[in-house]
């Protein structure tokens, strides 16, 4: 790991980067539900991971990247993703950041040594995903992330778009909006300094051989005080540029404003959901089946993000 990582992490904490210091300790999900992932190749990011497979016939893998100071298995349970996996028979891969890498257990989405292709945490995540896909004989792979995990999911999708059949970024940021701590703080507070066109151009430079970009679901709250909602808007617009999508629609769904970009067959390829009055986090709705449970940074809304993401990916 880079020698300056601990310094970057400490500075991030001092400045409140993705501050989730009051995240309550949740009851651990039963460890018997999960298998530890080991022997997955090079691990320069020094990450760990576990996975859940509901049955021997599960052929779809969903990667879930947690936010700061979160436990990946607890997030899977509380968010509704674990229940969705059981209900719709897909596997979950749950990478876990450590305090040794980042004192708040944030994925280092703002550090170039961890987000450049085939380096640091990016390479660790790539190897985890490829190993789990092979072990489980999965046919399709999707990735979702919350907050810092959402920013890291953006990075992984831009670096390795060919690996995924779909993505979801929850209260996250586009890649590459920041390559340093100072830029990260600015991006979080006010949104990317780049235009959507510039973000798309940078993504194309990162993956120049890519012509097919996976469908993307983006969700945020319009009252997010940690990650400015403009990040989600720019991310959706960046992806629309990458996928060269021209068909665009807007609608109102309960407490959410929804924008969608569709392909020539009228299939939604990008969905941007902005929930009215919601602060930072992943929305849950305990009143619907497998809709998740309320917890810190898992606010209640009419829309269950996990359920809507699974619907968008057509895993139901």
How is this structure best summarized?
By secondary structure, the protein is α/β, with parallel strands linked by helices.
Write structural notes for this entry.
This protein is an alpha/beta fold and 316 residues long. It has a single domain (5-18, 32-312), classed as Rossmann fold, CATH 3.40.50. Helix content is 32%, strand content 19%. It contains 10 helices and 10 strands. The chain has helices at residues 5-14, 72-79, 81-88, 112-115, 120-136, 148-159, 181-190, 196-206, 230-242, 305-312; strands spanning 35-36, 48-52, 60-65, 91-96, 140-146, 166-170, 216-221, 247-253, 256-262, 268-275. The protein has a 10-stranded mixed beta sheet, with helices on both faces. Strand 5 (140-146), helix 6 (148-159) and strand 6 (166-170) form a beta-alpha-beta unit. Helix 8 (196-206) crosses helix 9 (230-242). The termini are far apart. The model is unreliable at 1-28 (pLDDT under 50).
| SSE pattern, N- to C-terminal | HEEEHHEHHEHEHHEHEEEH
Annotated CATH homologous superfamily: Alpha/Beta hydrolase fold, catalytic domain
Shape: globular
Most strands sheet: 10 strands, mixed
Q: Please tell me the CATH architecture by its name.
A: 3-Layer(aba) Sandwich
Oligomeric grouping of the chains: single chain
Total helical segments = 10
Q: Tell me roughly what share of residues is in helical segments.
A: 25-40%
Q: Domains counted in the coordinates: how many? A: 1
CATH level 3 topology:
Rossmann fold
Roughly how many Å is the radius of gyration? 18 Å
Residue fraction in strands: 15-25%
Number of strands: 10
Order of the strands making up the biggest sheet: 1-2-4-3-5-6-7-10-9-8
N-to-C CA distance:
40 Å
What are the low-pLDDT stretches, counting only 5+ consecutive residues below 50? 1-28
Q: How does the helix and strand content classify structurally?
A: alpha/beta
Mean pLDDT: 90
């Amino acid at each position: 790991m880079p020698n300056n990582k601990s310094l970057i992490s400490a500075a991030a904490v001092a400045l409140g980067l993705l501050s989730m210091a009051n995240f309550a300790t949740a009851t651990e999900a039963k460890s018997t539900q999960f298998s530890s992932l080991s022997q997955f190749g090079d691990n320069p990011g020094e990450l760990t991971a576990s996975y859940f497979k509901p049955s021997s016939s599960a052929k779809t893998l969903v990667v879930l990247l947690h936010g700061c100071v979160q436990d990946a298995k607890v997030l899977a349970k509380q968010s509704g993703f674990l229940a969705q996996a059981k209900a719709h028979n897909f596997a979950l891969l749950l990478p876990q950041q450590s305090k040794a890498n980042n004192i708040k257990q944030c994925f280092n989405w703002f550090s170039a040594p961890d987000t450049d292709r085939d380096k640091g945490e990016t390479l660790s995540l790539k190897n985890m995903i490829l190993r789990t896909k092979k072990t489980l004989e999965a046919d399709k792979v999707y990735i979702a992330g919350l907050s810092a995990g959402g920013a890291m999911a953006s990075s992984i999708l831009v670096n390795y778009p060919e690996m995924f059949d779909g993505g979801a970024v929850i209260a996250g940021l586009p890649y590459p909006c920041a390559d340093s701590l100072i830029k990260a703080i600015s991006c979080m507070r006010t949104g990317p300094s780049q235009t959507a066109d510039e973000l798309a151009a940078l993504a194309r430079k990162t993956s120049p051989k890519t012509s097919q970009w996976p469908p993307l679901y983006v969700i945020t709250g319009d009252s997010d005080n940690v990650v400015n909602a403009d990040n989600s808007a720019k991310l959706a617009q960046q992806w629309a540029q990458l996928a060269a999508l021209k068909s665009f629609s807007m609608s109102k769904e309960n407490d959410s404003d929804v924008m969608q970009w569709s392909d020539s067959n009228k299939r939604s390829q990008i969905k941007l959901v902005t929930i009215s009055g919601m602060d930072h986090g992943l929305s849950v709705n305990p009143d619907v089946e497998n809709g998740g449970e309320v917890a810190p940074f898992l606010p209640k809304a009419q829309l269950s993000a996990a359920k809507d993401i699974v619907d968008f990916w057509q895993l139901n």
